[in-house]
Amino acid sequence: MIDSNLILHKNPYIVSKVIDNDYLLIPIVEETMDMNNIFGISDVGAFIWDNIDGNTSINEIINKVISEYEIDEDIASLDVNEFIKDCFSQNLLNEVSVE
Question: CA-to-CA distance for 7 and 29, rounded, in angstroms?
């Protein structure tokens, strides 16, 4: 499990677009990742992505998912953690540095 107090920010070289009701994450520079990688995400993934703002903790995002989708905490936590792990593995997210 990822630390639920962690605050994340989006990779600035990733843009999100909705095309034909599909939510896509698209790299905008080659140095960030292979330009052939466009990531389609689910509605829940899009909701999580939209709530990652560099100020909101993972725990707060989990609570927002619980409210939005009316699911229990265990399922919301699993969904959010899985999405975040996938995003980290694709270099879509970074941790906010607290100094």
Answer: 24
φ, ψ for residue 36, nearest 5 deg: -80, -10
DSSP 96: P
Tokens of 49: 């992505």
Q: 33 vs 23, 72, 89, CA distance in Å?
A: 19, 35, 11
Map residue 62 onto helix, strand or coil: helix
Q: What is the pTM of this model?
A: 0.88
Domains by residue range for the chain, with CATH: 8-89 (1.10.10)
pLDDT given for residue 33 in this prediction: 52
Residue 57 has pLDDT above 90, yes or no: yes
C-alpha 28/C-alpha 51 separation (Å) is 21
